[in-house]
Each structure stands twice: as C-alpha cells, then as structure tokens.
Amino acid sequence: MAIPNQQPLAAKESSQKPQLKVIPLRIFKFLLFVLVLVVGFSLVSLSMSRLFGIEGRLGFLPCLDEPSSLNLWMRPPRNLMHGMTDEELIWRASLVPQVKDYPFKRVPKVAFMFLTKGPLPLYPLWEKFLRGNEKLYSIYIHSLPSYSAEFPKSSPFYGRQIPSQVSAWGEMSMCDAERRLLANALLDISNQRFVLLSETCIPLVNFSLVHRHLLRARHSFVSSFDDHGPYGRGRYNPRMAPEVDISQWRKGSQWFEVDRQAAIAIIKDTTFYPKFKEFCRPNCYVDEHYFPTMLSIEMPQRLANRSVTWVDWSRGGAHPATFGGADITEAFLRGVLEGQSCLYNGQPSALCFLFARKFSPSTLPRLLELAPKVLGFG
Length: 378
Hints:
about 375 residues, 12 helices, about 10% strand, glycosyltransferase activity, transmembrane, membrane
C-alpha cells in the first residue's frame, strides 16, 4: 500500500538542510568581522597613544614595559605632562640609586630648565645653540598653566612643557616652580647638570664648551654670600632659628646651575622649606635666600659661590638691566665674554659666564647675526 505523504516529506526535509548551514556561517562571518574590527581598533589606539604620549598623561605604561626591566628606569618619560601631584612627583624624583656605578652606558646630559610666564621669544637662538647635540641635553619649560606653547614639531622645545602652577616673583611659589622643574628633570636618569634659565637668557658660548665645562665642574654654581646690609641679614627673621641662625643666612642669584646631588638635596628638603615658607615673607624675597642658605648649610664645600649667568646691575634698581636691539653689538658681546676672572675647580679661569640675561625679543635679529662670529655657533 502506497504512502503518498512520505515522498513530499523527504523532499521538504532535503530542501531545509542547506538553510540550516547558511545561518551559522553568517553568524561566524559577523563575529569574525567584529573580532578583526576590535583588534584593529586596539592596535590603532595603542599607536596613537604612543604617538601623542597619552599613556603618560593618564599615568599608565604600555603592556610591553615589564616592571622588572631595567629599561623602565633608563628611559626618560615619554610625555612630560603627567598626572602626578607635586608631592608624588618629588617623592618619585627623590629615589636615588645607592650604587654609583651605572650598569649601562650612561651619556650625561645637561637639563636646560626654562622658568617663564609664557613664550620663549629667543628660542631660535637656542635652537642654533643646541643643533647637532640632541643626545646631550634635555629641555623643560615651566610656564603659566594657561599658556600653551606653539613650537613647531621640528623644534627641540616642542612638547617640553611640564605640569605647572602660578608662581609670583619673590614668593615661595617661585621656589616651588624651581623645585618642580628640578623634580621633572631628575626623572631622566641621564641628566647630570641642571641650569635654571628665563625667557630673557641667551647662551654666550657654543654647546660643546658649555657641556664640557659643566660636566667637568666639581662644584655647583650657586651664588651664596653673607650680606650684612638691610637687603641681606636685614631680611632674616629670628623665628627661623634653630634651623637657620643669622650667621648662616645667605643671599644669592635666583638663576643657579647645580649637579645631580645638589638637585636632589633641593627637592627632598623638609627641614628648611617650612621655615622659609612661613617666615620669609612678604618682603623677604625668598627666591634670593632659600636655596643659597639651605645649600650653604647642607653642602658648603660643593658650591662655587658664584653664578654662571651674567647680568648687569650697574644701572641700579631692584632688577638688572634689560637690553634691546640697539645694545647688541660685537663690542658689547665681547665685553661680556672677555676680561673676566674666577675660580674653576680651584684654578683661575677666564671663562666665568656661560649664559647671560636680560635680553628683550628685539635683540634676536642681531644675536642671530653675530652668534657665528662672536658666540661660536649658528
């Protein structure tokens, strides 16, 4: 007896089998597409974060950086705009290796630290000074937090601003800014000498001479002297004792140059800092007294007791002379460079100043013109 319904049923089942295979295949293709998209997006994001330094800004390291790797300590920060507070920064920067011999090839660098409100109008002169020595220096810029520099990407000043705060002349906030610069520069283990500069500073000699002179120096160039007058001891507050006695009170130029040991001593100080912050104000001008006094107490034998930055006080007043374009002549620059006498590593030297201030933006054209002939670079 024939069963008329069996043949149509088999045909119906046969026609449904290809459809059951097509549905999983579409899902698989979709999932594969999503996986490729996610992986591609992750790789692009990682590349972009490395390119723009986003990982440094967010405070994390790439997954390839092993905490136990020596490269993590050898390599300078990729991006200077970190998210650390001042307390965290100073703690991190104060970590000092106790073994003096480095287990890797360390090329000592000079850290040029610019303390400025905003632009660096003389930076084209500094670019010529630095050119060809990229492995021998670092640059750090502390400006007003609201200022955003617009250096070209080809400039050594590009991306060299550090997290900053408002600082005022003569107040402790100025010393805080200088400590902030030092702490950021100390994060690069290769930085050995640290020069504090302003937007009005210029180099007086070529880079090779500056680098050699500073790296061979046995002292830090901090001006520190005992002024018995009203602008020296007259600013001393007896409540700073016993940490600071009046016989230990010192005055000096704000624009210092220090080695790594002195830089660490400055940022880790918790003995003298509170006394100066509380009792050296408002007309004490703490930036002229804090570092000279503290360092002369802590490490007097390591100070040259002079600055390597030349200024002209002959015009009188609370600030040194500011020079304009008409002042810049070959005779003027040679007068700054020549006829000097000082001690360098305990021996007489005619090279006393490596930098000078205060130079207005109008001096740039003449400085660029005269630099190759008089200053030895450009």
